[in-house]
Write a structure and sequence with these properties.
The structure is a homodimer of 273-residue chains. The first copy, chain A, has 273 residues and is of the alpha/beta class. Chain A is built from 12 helices and 8 strands. An 8-stranded parallel beta sheet of chain A has the order 2-1-8-7-6-5-4-3. In chain A, β7, α10 and β8 form a beta-alpha-beta unit. In chain A, α10 packs across α12.
């Protein structure tokens, strides 16, 4: 089963388009968790156990594991392996390099870590993204319009043809989509552009939408503007506001409660029966 | 000593602006080297031993280590540690994410791996690069115009103000340079634009120039167009054509001979006494 099929199946089973970001941050761990790699592992596994029937995907961000060096990579592999087989894993890595090198990044993400999908940076163009797209069963999320404040600096530059750079990235990326595995990243902090991009790319492209929660994006608007006509393929990612809502022994319950709150809105907005 | 001072000192000592890329590829290892991590480590250390008085820097590309997972990261840390203290290490990682996340990437590169410099991707704008630039003693190489064939796809799009995107990136990155640690990446396959960019950014910005060797960039032209008026700060990176020139027991001698050939041209073109 390819990434998109696995994603839709998980979303239908759990009636949810919520993706939980698994980003371990020692400074934010709840007080009962030991500030160590083993404590972090237990924490992440507890979060997975309590949320796995409420999500369509998990998204570990590589940076939060790389900070721990080699042991962090072992932790990342262990966490990906721990996630139930029917929940897809999007590795947030924002990789991209010349073709010969991107091949190695793709091997690290897909052959070694066994992720189902990855985020990639389009600045270097097609030959840097192709080695990822060549993995037909994997989902390749191209950064389009990101959720951070300075995303406008280059992404919203108008080109001579009157389109903005991010729109040119979306249009161009569509021409790369030979294996029906292209996906996009569009921040929840840009709801209008999200709606326009959904129109532009059509209803078959999964869009990962970070920025709801700590970054302030609007959930309902992101769903309405990001989903296709069937209410599908708008993957709402939330990381910090799920993981670190509980500060004490209640952290698992609070994480689940926050997911339930988000999923309840989703079910209502998208009419997920 | 900050990165730029360390770089200039190494270049002056070795009379060389050559950077050797340390990119282990099992398929290309010379026949006497065991195709394993320990074989790779011995190979890289032998290359370092035989070239360390001919270079101004080494540049391991993270992807080639990440393909081996956690053990690859241990190898990368070991190789960085093995490089003599007076030769700066540029970690080629092309990282970039929202601020909170870029902080973790910077910690991985500088606190854990102890690299002297890193390559970063500008697509997400200033707040994604700032956590790297905040390390005052480290060099931050922003991708500007890359050496790969499809670099033109977005980087050479004309903006409304008649500049191309890569030029806008260079101009904008200059405004971020509060700590005198901004550097750029400009491919050797674009020698004319390299010359224009050197004019644009002035004589104090180190430029990393990949693409001489396997990718076909011209060494002499890259030096003439990339160096400042003192013949400095054009860092010529060569990876495959140094590492994998020798196929048999002569691989160390052949790697050194190829470095000598390149450095000899450099000394002549740049009048390095």
């Amino acid at each position: 089963m390819n990434f998109k099929a696995k994603l839709i199946k998980a979303a239908n089973t759990n009636k949810s388009w919520l993706c939980v970001g698994l980003d371990p941050d020692l400074d934010k761990l709840p007080s009962p968790v030991t500030k160590s790699l083993s404590g972090t592992e237990e924490f992440l596994k507890a979060i997975i156990d309590s949320t796995k029937n409420l999500v369509c995907a998990y998204k570990p961000n590589s940076a939060f594991y790389e900070q721990f060096g080699a042991e962090g990579i072992t932790l990342l592999k262990g966490i990906i392996n721990y996630i139930p087989d029917d929940i897809p894993v999007i590795l947030d890595a924002k990789r991209g390099d010349i073709g010969n090198t991107s091949k190695m990044y793709a091997a690290a993400a897909f052959d070694y870590l066994r992720a189902d999908a990855i985020t990639v940076n389009p600045y270097m163009g097609h030959d840097c993204v192709k080695p990822f797209l060549d993995y037909q069963d994997k989902g390749i999320f191209v950064l389009c319009l990101t959720s951070n404040p300075s995303s406008s600096e280059f992404q919203k530059q108008y080109l001579k043809n009157q389109t903005m750079l991010y729109e040119q990235v979306a249009r161009t990326a569509l021409t790369w989509n030979k294996n029906d595995n292209l996906c996009l990243v569009v921040g929840a902090t840009k709801p209008e552009e999200l709606g326009e991009l959904r129109q532009l790319v059509g209803g078959d492209i999964p869009i990962l939408i970070p920025g709801v929660g700590a970054q302030g994006g609007d959930l309902e608007l992101s769903l309405r503007n990001g989903a296709n006509s069937k209410g599908e393929l708008a993957i709402i990612n939330v990381s910090r506001s799920v993981l670190y809502t509980g500060k004490d022994n209640d952290y698992v319950d609070k994480a689940r409660a926050e997911c339930l709150r988000l999923v309840s809105t989703m079910r209502s907005v998208l009419n997920l029966a």
